[in-house]
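Reproducibility note. Readers wishing to regenerate the assembly model reported in the main text can use the exact inputs given here. Chain order matters: entities are listed in the order in which they were concatenated for prediction.
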Amino acid sequence: MSEETLCNRRPIQTEESLKKLLKDSGGSQYYKEMKSLNVDHELLWSTIQKTCKSRIRTWLEICAHCGMCAESCFLYLINDRDPTQVPAYKIQSTLGEIIKRKGRVDNEFMHMAMKTAWAKCTCCNRCGLYCPNGIDMGIMMGYLRGLLYAQGFVPWELKIGAGMHRVYHAQMDVTNEDFVETCEWMAEEYEEDYVGLNFPVDKENADILYTINAREVKHYPEDLAEAAILFHIAGEDWTITSKGWEQTSLAMFAGDWEACKIQVESVYDAMERLKPKRMIGTECGHAHRATVIEGPYWAGRENGLPPVKCMHYVEWVAEALREGKLVIDPEKRIKEPVTLQDSCNYVRNHGLKKITREIMSYMVEPGYFIDMSPNEEHNYCCGGGGGFNGIGLYRKERNQALITKRDQILNTGAKLVIAPCHNCWDAIRDLEEEYKIGIRWSFLKPLLIKMVKVPEHMKPKD
Amino acid sequence: MQDILTGPMIWLSLSVFVFGMLARIILYIRGLDWKLDRVAYRAHPKAGMKGAARSIIYWLLPFATKSWRKQPVMTVVFFIFHLGAILVPLFLLAHNMILKEMFYLSFPITLNMCLADILSWGVIVSSIVLILRRVSLPEVRILTTTYDYFILFLAVAPFVTGLSARYQIGEYQFWYTMHLLSGELFLMLAPFTKLSHIALFFMSRSQLGMDFGIKRGGMKKGASMAW
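Running the prediction on these inputs yields the following structure tokens for the assembly.
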């Protein structure tokens, strides 16, 4: 393969190649080249022999083909019960088939597998709760994504995303300087409204190290300000880090395990360097999954835990409200029908179902909170998880997938949806844009800012 | 023929079954890899055991999981099938007499004849429903292969032949021989086919239970998986 191609098996390693790929708008050249990308059978089969061990092999073998997983999959339901959307079928016809053929599959097959892995599964892991044999097809899809990525069969945006992590240690081209400068700018913007507000940078031994999603720097700097304001009001001893501040991992969506390791180690290095008591991440689901749940394994940490105790933002909010570090003005509680989106990545996959409802009990006037159905660990994916939101090639399929969430929200009758997850937030914004059902959506931070009591000494003196 | 089937073949098939299943269990456990599976099995044995136990127990009880409750017909059929398929071979009086004769051991309780009949018919009837389900539901049909029917055949043949012998339909001796043959075939093929789920069900369920128990929230307060 010549060095000139955009679509190949090599990961993006340099800023130059990243820019070159970005220039190919929509990936038109990239996908054209993919049509003639050959499959490295040897690599595929040897990778499987090395990494596909008893868990996945047993899952594939003992699947009883009973179809009980079908109805657990929102993509099956929303696509008119298309049998090719049955989770067991999706994995048997891709990963199962690759193994059966000992890796000898062709280009056309890989295109089909790519579409299945990224447009027919969001790795929400819901099917894993419904299989009597304990088969988690979401995990297998994640594994399949890794195989496909190594062969160069990965959606354009995710190839770029994984490359971003390799080049910038962030999901977007945001440098460490950009991050710190944006924080300083936000502090300047708001220090008059909240006396004493600042962003402590690289403070050692702080109680809290706050990590974020690079999108906040690039597109939503207000989010950074809100986080700082809430820590400030709560009187927390906190810090940001000038290096290793990015909690997300598009590399995880892409199946680029090496980049996952590079990314998460940059965050763990910051933990080791600054020695905070704990790390708190922003309102993002997959960032939490990548850094707190899966990350320790990529980094080779045998206890399966990050170097310091890590919490999702919702855990901190619940704690701050419970302990009175943040006090809500009862007058300002939400007094309209409101619902909550349970993020797959930290609810189904990290058990944080009660804590978000505890937050609701403080923020919402009794009687106004309405749960979606199903909810908690049985909630459906927002429709845009696992990278689905960001892939232009599968926009039509993603928009179809959003209908599930649209109808769940409509059934609650709520006009306000609280979504403490970047991915869910995006999906809900997009579903409003696409289907216009007249809803508003919000992270916790902006709502909290409007309702918490600000201590006198932090109020501006006129 | 009969001498072989009632003598050495029983020994052989039971040995293949027991040692084969044991080998499958050992190979399964040895093939677990904390780093590849991304589950710290060794680091948190208590949380792991708790997760594994919950994962098995909930799924062994009819209607205890959301999945069972969501598909009540399948649940009833599934449990009738498996109840018969497990209890009859283990606790049938005639089987226990063989055990006593050959190995000088037997289970302290055996099924009375009527109950054994009901359970056996349960297996036959539920297997017919399972076949109809495979044929009629598109989401099951797309998954179904000839191999699935072969597995069902292996599991049900001992019941069909056993009941035929018990009711003496046609020639008893013929059905008795077929019953021995099909039963021994089942035992010998189980470790090498999908029937290995007899043991691997517990392995797979334990593994996922440990995954949820250790990594996916099980160690957080009040976060136990509802299944």
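We highlight two features of this model. Chain A is about 50% helix and 5% strand. Chain A has a mean pLDDT of 97.
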